[in-house]
Amino acid sequence: MEARIEKIKQHLQSQGYKLTPQREATVRVLLENEEDHLSAEDVFMLVKDKAPEIGLATVYRTLELLSEMHVVEKMNFGDGVARYDLRTDNNKHHHHHLICVKCGSMSEIMEDWLLPLEERVEREYGFTVLDHRLDFQGICAKCQSDHPPQTETN
Predict the structure, then answer these.
(1) What is the C-alpha to C-alpha distance for residues 78 and 89, in angstroms, rounded to an integer?
(2) How far apart are CA 7 and CA 145, in angstroms?
(3) Which of 9, 42, 45, 114 could form a disulfide with 38 if both were Cys (CB 3.0 to 4.6 A apart)?
(4) Does 137 lie in the same domain as 82?
(5) Are 78 and 4 found together in one domain?
(6) Which stretches are annotated as coiled coil (predicted)?
(7) Considering the entire predicted model, what is its pTM?
(8) Is 152 part of a structural domain of the chain?
(9) How does DSSP classify residue 27?
(10) Is there a domain that residue 153 lies in?
(11) Per residue in 31-89, pLDDT tens?
(12) Are 31 and 69 in the same domain?
Protein backbone atom coordinates (compact mmCIF):
# COMPACT_ATOMS: atom_id res chain seq x y z
CA MET A 1 0.00 0.00 0.00
CA GLU A 2 2.80 2.41 0.86
CA ALA A 3 4.32 2.02 -2.60
CA ARG A 4 1.00 2.91 -4.24
CA ILE A 5 0.59 5.93 -1.98
CA GLU A 6 4.11 7.08 -2.87
CA LYS A 7 3.33 6.67 -6.58
CA ILE A 8 0.15 8.74 -6.21
CA LYS A 9 2.09 11.36 -4.24
CA GLN A 10 4.66 11.60 -7.03
CA HIS A 11 1.92 11.84 -9.65
CA LEU A 12 0.24 14.70 -7.78
CA GLN A 13 3.57 16.48 -7.30
CA SER A 14 4.34 16.20 -11.01
CA GLN A 15 1.15 18.18 -11.62
CA GLY A 16 1.86 20.78 -8.93
CA TYR A 17 -0.26 19.30 -6.13
CA LYS A 18 0.66 17.99 -2.69
CA LEU A 19 -0.54 14.84 -1.01
CA THR A 20 -1.95 16.60 2.04
CA PRO A 21 -2.90 14.57 5.12
CA GLN A 22 -6.56 14.88 4.10
CA ARG A 23 -5.84 13.62 0.60
CA GLU A 24 -3.69 10.82 1.96
CA ALA A 25 -6.46 9.71 4.34
CA THR A 26 -8.88 9.63 1.40
CA VAL A 27 -6.44 7.63 -0.75
CA ARG A 28 -5.86 5.16 2.09
CA VAL A 29 -9.61 4.57 2.43
CA LEU A 30 -9.86 3.97 -1.33
CA LEU A 31 -6.94 1.53 -1.22
CA GLU A 32 -8.35 -0.34 1.79
CA ASN A 33 -11.74 -0.68 0.09
CA GLU A 34 -10.55 -1.06 -3.48
CA GLU A 35 -13.18 -3.61 -4.52
CA ASP A 36 -16.16 -1.73 -3.12
CA HIS A 37 -16.79 1.13 -5.62
CA LEU A 38 -17.43 3.64 -2.83
CA SER A 39 -19.56 6.76 -3.14
CA ALA A 40 -18.23 10.08 -1.82
CA GLU A 41 -20.44 9.64 1.24
CA ASP A 42 -19.07 6.13 1.82
CA VAL A 43 -15.51 7.47 1.57
CA PHE A 44 -16.36 10.30 3.96
CA MET A 45 -17.80 7.95 6.59
CA LEU A 46 -14.66 5.79 6.45
CA VAL A 47 -12.27 8.77 6.40
CA LYS A 48 -14.08 10.30 9.37
CA ASP A 49 -13.17 7.24 11.47
CA LYS A 50 -9.47 7.85 10.74
CA ALA A 51 -9.44 11.65 10.69
CA PRO A 52 -12.54 13.17 12.33
CA GLU A 53 -11.46 16.70 11.44
CA ILE A 54 -11.99 16.12 7.71
CA GLY A 55 -15.26 17.45 6.32
CA LEU A 56 -17.45 16.10 3.54
CA ALA A 57 -16.57 19.04 1.26
CA THR A 58 -12.86 18.19 1.59
CA VAL A 59 -13.55 14.58 0.63
CA TYR A 60 -15.59 15.72 -2.40
CA ARG A 61 -12.82 18.10 -3.51
CA THR A 62 -10.19 15.40 -3.04
CA LEU A 63 -12.17 12.85 -5.05
CA GLU A 64 -12.73 15.36 -7.85
CA LEU A 65 -9.01 16.21 -7.95
CA LEU A 66 -8.07 12.52 -7.97
CA SER A 67 -10.57 11.97 -10.78
CA GLU A 68 -9.15 14.87 -12.83
CA MET A 69 -5.65 13.48 -12.26
CA HIS A 70 -6.80 10.00 -13.44
CA VAL A 71 -5.89 8.44 -10.09
CA VAL A 72 -9.50 7.34 -9.61
CA GLU A 73 -12.27 6.71 -12.07
CA LYS A 74 -15.58 8.44 -11.36
CA MET A 75 -18.40 6.13 -12.41
CA ASN A 76 -22.16 6.10 -12.46
CA PHE A 77 -23.87 2.73 -12.71
CA GLY A 78 -27.31 4.15 -13.41
CA ASP A 79 -28.39 4.49 -9.78
CA GLY A 80 -27.71 8.23 -9.64
CA VAL A 81 -24.73 7.82 -7.30
CA ALA A 82 -21.20 8.72 -8.37
CA ARG A 83 -18.78 6.01 -7.29
CA TYR A 84 -15.01 6.05 -7.24
CA ASP A 85 -12.61 3.32 -8.21
CA LEU A 86 -8.82 3.44 -8.11
CA ARG A 87 -7.11 2.96 -11.43
CA THR A 88 -4.46 0.27 -11.49
CA ASP A 89 -0.94 0.68 -12.78
CA ASN A 90 -0.98 -2.47 -14.86
CA ASN A 91 -3.89 -1.50 -17.13
CA LYS A 92 -3.77 1.23 -19.76
CA HIS A 93 -7.54 1.52 -19.48
CA HIS A 94 -10.07 1.24 -16.73
CA HIS A 95 -11.50 -2.21 -16.12
CA HIS A 96 -15.05 -3.19 -17.01
CA HIS A 97 -18.04 -4.12 -14.85
CA LEU A 98 -20.92 -6.58 -14.65
CA ILE A 99 -23.77 -4.84 -12.82
CA CYS A 100 -26.77 -6.76 -11.49
CA VAL A 101 -29.96 -4.74 -11.93
CA LYS A 102 -31.73 -6.77 -9.22
CA CYS A 103 -29.35 -6.74 -6.25
CA GLY A 104 -26.89 -4.04 -7.36
CA SER A 105 -23.83 -6.28 -7.07
CA MET A 106 -20.83 -5.47 -9.25
CA SER A 107 -18.16 -7.76 -10.59
CA GLU A 108 -15.06 -6.62 -12.41
CA ILE A 109 -13.54 -7.77 -15.68
CA MET A 110 -9.85 -6.96 -15.43
CA GLU A 111 -8.97 -7.99 -19.00
CA ASP A 112 -9.14 -5.32 -21.69
CA TRP A 113 -11.55 -6.94 -24.13
CA LEU A 114 -11.98 -3.73 -26.12
CA LEU A 115 -8.38 -3.31 -27.26
CA PRO A 116 -8.96 -4.90 -30.72
CA LEU A 117 -12.01 -2.65 -31.21
CA GLU A 118 -10.05 0.39 -30.06
CA GLU A 119 -7.28 -0.40 -32.56
CA ARG A 120 -9.89 -0.73 -35.33
CA VAL A 121 -11.45 2.64 -34.40
CA GLU A 122 -8.01 4.25 -34.55
CA ARG A 123 -7.18 2.58 -37.88
CA GLU A 124 -10.52 3.11 -39.65
CA TYR A 125 -11.52 6.50 -38.26
CA GLY A 126 -8.17 8.08 -37.42
CA PHE A 127 -9.52 8.62 -33.91
CA THR A 128 -7.02 8.39 -31.07
CA VAL A 129 -8.73 6.63 -28.19
CA LEU A 130 -7.51 7.83 -24.79
CA ASP A 131 -9.71 5.62 -22.68
CA HIS A 132 -12.83 3.48 -22.72
CA ARG A 133 -15.09 1.68 -20.30
CA LEU A 134 -17.64 -1.07 -20.73
CA ASP A 135 -20.42 -1.90 -18.29
CA PHE A 136 -22.73 -4.87 -18.74
CA GLN A 137 -26.09 -4.62 -17.00
CA GLY A 138 -28.04 -7.79 -16.35
CA ILE A 139 -28.91 -10.32 -13.68
CA CYS A 140 -26.15 -12.02 -11.68
CA ALA A 141 -25.94 -15.78 -11.18
CA LYS A 142 -27.07 -15.53 -7.54
CA CYS A 143 -30.24 -13.61 -8.41
CA GLN A 144 -30.94 -16.04 -11.24
CA SER A 145 -30.64 -19.02 -8.90
CA ASP A 146 -32.72 -17.31 -6.19
CA HIS A 147 -35.51 -16.51 -8.69
CA PRO A 148 -35.41 -18.88 -11.66
CA PRO A 149 -37.58 -17.85 -14.61
CA GLN A 150 -41.07 -19.24 -14.34
CA THR A 151 -42.35 -21.35 -17.17
CA GLU A 152 -45.97 -21.47 -18.17
CA THR A 153 -47.83 -24.70 -17.58
CA ASN A 154 -50.92 -25.60 -19.54
Answers:
(1) 27
(2) 43
(3) 42
(4) no
(5) yes
(6) none
(7) 0.66
(8) no
(9) H
(10) no
(11) 999 878 889 999 999 999 988 999 999 999 999 999 988 888 888 776 778 888 887 65
(12) yes
